[in-house]
Write a structure and sequence with these properties.
single chain; 4-stranded mixed sheet; 434 Repressor (Amino-terminal Domain); 8 strands; alpha+beta; two-stranded antiparallel ribbon
Length: 384
């Protein structure tokens, strides 16, 4: 068998980058641990097929294995997550790959948008982080019809907000895994979403491992990021002291749960304040932690009451997450495409590919639909 001239130090880097121990990687490659160790010390070399499998299992491009040194992997998006006042500053490989692939799709859509000779989106960066009143007025002006005619069913409301944001020109993506790889789940505790502010192709990405009611808050939080023209990865922590995060949380909360309406519905006479939560959760279509937060902001409950209940909400979510692990099924794959990569992007890609202006394999790379199934997908899911 012909050995490949891969760089041993790159093999070690790729393994550590993927978060694998030597024994774990050996298990994935179905080889002995000693063989992986020999590759990393340079005492032996993998065959071509082994090197390909190594690259696949460690999620690196095959060509990386021949580099003289690891590539720089800086991502062009700020990390706005904090622990107290200190930035976290480290992304998992799953989050890195999600951000990278999102920028690839953004780049394609941006070129497509420019080729249509369409104007810049003037609402990107139209408000300042120092002007809460203008921000709330602007978001109500742009999306107010969704609130004024709030559908009774949550999913109708959520989908209407997404549709209205995409009509404005943004791409809204929701995914719980890296691309279409169901073996690489995103971590809800690592991030809730991110926004890429671009006046041709702005993107909102929502971590779909979160509860649906929490996702709707993420959607509005990231939309406010676009209004102030600030890209970033968000965790939506109540204790996050980043000024952009605090501002986006505040504006999103006021839009989804307007103070006047909230105060008129909150029953201060109840012996247990938490009895308010289920009814208001259903009315506003947001999670109970958003309702509890609004109660805290309006001084209806204490910090101690809020954080005590917040801990219970987290415990309940973790228990529900464990139960969901045992359940099978979900939407058909074709329907997931519009959710994962945005219906707006999927429509543009399918249109270009089916008209012959784009290679079918390139369309597959962008939205994950096999070339032989693209026409059927466009007909059923995009109404072509």
């Amino acid at each position: 068998m012909v050995e490949t001239l891969v760089n041993p130090s790159i093999l070690a880097w790729a393994r550590k980058r993927a978060g694998f121990t030597v024994s774990k990687l050996a298990e994935k490659l179905k080889i002995k641990q000693e063989q992986v160790e020999a590759w990393e010390t340079g005492d032996s070399k993998p065959t071509f097929r082994q090197a390909q499998k190594f690259a696949d299992k460690t999620y690196v491009p095959f060509g990386y294995l021949f580099l003289h040194e690891p590539p720089r992997e800086e991502l062009p998006i700020p990390d706005l997550r904090t622990i107290g006042n200190h930035p976290i500053g480290k992304f998992s490989l799953d989050l890195k790959d999600t951000i990278r692939s999102t920028f690839e799709r953004l780049a394609w859509y941006k070129d497509f948008y420019r080729e249509q000779d369409l104007p810049r989106l003037n609402w990107i960066g139209c408000v300042s982080v120092d002007d809460f009143e203008l921000a709330t007025a602007t978001i109500k002006n742009l999306l107010g019809s969704s609130i004024a005619q709030r559908p009774r069913q949550f999913h109708d409301y959520f989908n209407e907000l997404i549709t209205n944001i995409e009509v404005l020109g943004a791409l809204v993506m929701r995914n719980s895994v890296v691309g279409n790889n169901t073996h690489r789940s995103l971590d809800r505790d690592e991030f809730r979403g991110f926004a890429i502010a671009d006046d041709h192709a702005p993107v909102i990405f929502i971590n779909a491992t979160d509860t649906p009611q929490a996702q709707i808050f993420t959607l509005l939080h990231e939309f406010v990021h676009l209004l102030i023209n600030e890209s970033g990865v968000s965790d939506l922590s109540h204790r996050n002291e980043n000024r952009f995060e605090k501002f986006c949380n505040r504006v999103a909360a006021e839009f989804l749960v307007p103070s006047d309406e909230f105060l008129s519905l909150w029953d201060v006479e109840l012996e247990d304040w938490r009895v308010n939560l289920p009814q208001l959760e259903s009315h506003f279509h947001v999670s109970q932690w958003v309702i509890a937060r609004r109660a805290l902001e309006n001084r209806l409950i204490s910090e101690q009451q809020y954080w005590g209940h917040y801990g219970k909400i987290l415990d309940a979510f973790k228990n529900e997450k464990e139960k969901r692990k045992d359940k099978e099924g979900g939407p058909p794959f074709n329907r997931l495409i519009n959710m994962r990569y945005s219906k707006k992007l999927a429509t543009a890609v399918a249109s270009e590919a089916l008209s012959g202006r784009m290679l079918l394999r390139d369309a597959h790379h962008l939205i994950g639909v096999h070339p032989s199934k693209l026409k059927d997908f466009a007909k059923k899911e995009l109404s072509f």
